[in-house]
Amino acid sequence: MSEKLNFIVIDDSKLDCFIAEKVIQNSGRSETVKSFMVATEALDYITSNSSSDTKTVVLVDIQMPVMNGFEFIEAYEEKVPEEARNKYLVNLLSSSINETDMIRAKGYKSVNKFLNKPLTKDTLDVILASA
Amino acid sequence: MSKPEKIKVLYVDDEANNLVGFKATFRLDYNVFVANSADEGIEMLEKNPDIKVILCDQRMPGKTGVQFYEEIASRYPAPVRMLLTGYTDIESVINAINRGHIYRYIPKPWQETDIRSAIEEGYKYYVTNSMLNVKNVELQKAYDELDKFAYSVTHDMRGPILSVLGAIEIAKNSDDVPEIKEILEMMEKSIQRVDDFIQNMHEYYNLKRGELQIKEIDFNEIIKELQELYDVGAKVSNTSFQIELNQQDIFRTDVLSLKIILNNLLSNAFKYQRKDIDSKFVKLEIIVGSGSVTIYVRDNGIGIDQAHINDIFNMFYRATSQSVGSGFGLYNVKDALRKLNGEIQVKSQPGEGTEFKVEIPNK
């Protein structure tokens, strides 16, 4: 139950990264937390970092410039082999109350949860319960 | 005053006599094109896609009139189509009318008055239809924009507010004063972003709904305002702000639109600086010639990737995660320029800087 996890936060807002880091650290479940403000950098990190076997929870914001959350998921599914994807638990976070986004999110097999912002202890618990 | 343009009418018939007679009767009132087969009719349409009314004989060797209309229906949906035929062909006429290929059927042999009234009414139908199409396209555009707008409002306005709410939650549980101060600073930026967005939205509606107020522009006054607006920020961020004005002539335009253009370009130039260099600059050059003004806004900031350069004027598009853009600014610039019949060009090199060149004609 209290197995330690790695966390990756992807959000173009510095404040949202900070909030996520705090909430994650306070949960006591984190081995590491890494934040990325640009999704492409997070993808590079994931593709080049396959050594660790620790389960990793990824939190991705949907609306980001350059590469948005959906584009990230698509690139992730394309570039990371299925076997390697097993240790990642990718979750989408959004501040828009948008049906279309929710339906679209459900269409990706690698998306674990679609959740509304802000990230709180309760939201994180929902994710951790599925980890 | 120029005469209204003559209606372009195409007449297709395999009997040469009919074609000659038709042309002789109507050439003064209409711009008449004739063809003696369906294939020739298609050729005629290719060369003159702005033909408004087509009359075609049903009984022709090769393709019939109905077949001709079926063939052109998808490629040339706009012209109004009429079929000329004797009573014996009534079955095929009913078919064609029911399938929507034909606006009217005219019995043969035709009377001049029948044809004339058919063309006049058909043309009216054509005009109404094409006006409806234009309106539909406009309406669709407005709907699309509204959709985007609603989506973005929830994100761009709600996003920063949710961030602040999340931050408050953390600050409440923290006893670490420096940390709380750090959180407060980030909250301030978030709130600033909402405020920017609301201001941009206000500009957007001013542009959409507002009437242009054309008057003589006092560039010295505008420059003074811009200096007041940006000098403090320039000093804080250690960016030099240089303005050059070269005015040969008086210039008239809508001052609000002009200010929206200048403000958005300048605030972008200040916003997207490279943080790690010492010689940061923003240069504004205004050249007022006879008949138009040319404005350059140059900076040595982060620049824009070629992959994004065509999208930067789209609503809510943001090409970078550096700084807090609303994705509204350049859209407003383009909208303002559209109203003033102006033009904008952008040259940029990532990591070196950006130059916007704006040209606005004198009103």
Spatial order of the strands forming the largest sheet of chain A = 2-1-3-4-5
- Return the CATH architecture of chain A: 3-Layer(aba) Sandwich
Helix fraction bin of chain A: 40-55%
- The quaternary state of the protein chains shown equals heterodimer
Show the largest interface: A-B, 25 and 28 residues
Instruction: Tell me the fraction of residues in β-strands of chain B, as a range.
Output: 15-25%
Explain what this protein looks like in three dimensions.
The complex is a heterodimer of chains A (131) and B (363). In chain A, helix 2 packs parallel to helix 3 (69-79). In chain A, strand 1 (5-10), helix 1 (14-27) and strand 2 form a beta-alpha-beta unit. Chain A has a five-stranded parallel sheet, with helices on both faces. Chain A is built from six helices and five strands. Chain A has a single domain, classed as 3-Layer(aba) Sandwich (Rossmann fold). With 131 residues, chain A is of the alpha/beta class. Chain A has helices at residues 14-27, 39-48, 69-79, 82-85, 99-106, 121-129, and strands at 5-10, 30-36, 56-61, 88-94, 111-116. Helix content of chain A is 43%, strand content 24%. With 363 residues, chain B is an alpha/beta fold. Among the domains of chain B are: 8-110, 3-Layer(aba) Sandwich (Rossmann fold), CATH 3.40.50; 213-363, Histidine kinase-like ATPase, C-terminal domain (Heat Shock Protein 90, 2-Layer Sandwich), CATH 3.30.565. Chain B contains nine helices and twelve strands. Chain B has helices at residues 16-26, 38-47, 65-72, 90-98, 112-172, 177-209, 219-236, 255-271, 329-339; strands at 8-12, 31-35, 53-57, 80-85, 104-107, 214-216, 239-247, 252-254, 280-288, 292-299, 343-349, 353-361. Chain B has a five-stranded parallel sheet, sandwiched between helices. Chain B has a five-stranded mixed sheet with strand order 7-9-10-12-11, covered by helices on one side. The A-B interface holds A 12-16, 18-19, 22-23, 26, 37-38, 63-66, 94-98, 117-120 and B 151, 154-155, 158-160, 162-167, 169-170, 173, 183, 186-187, 189-190, 308, 317-321, 325, 327.
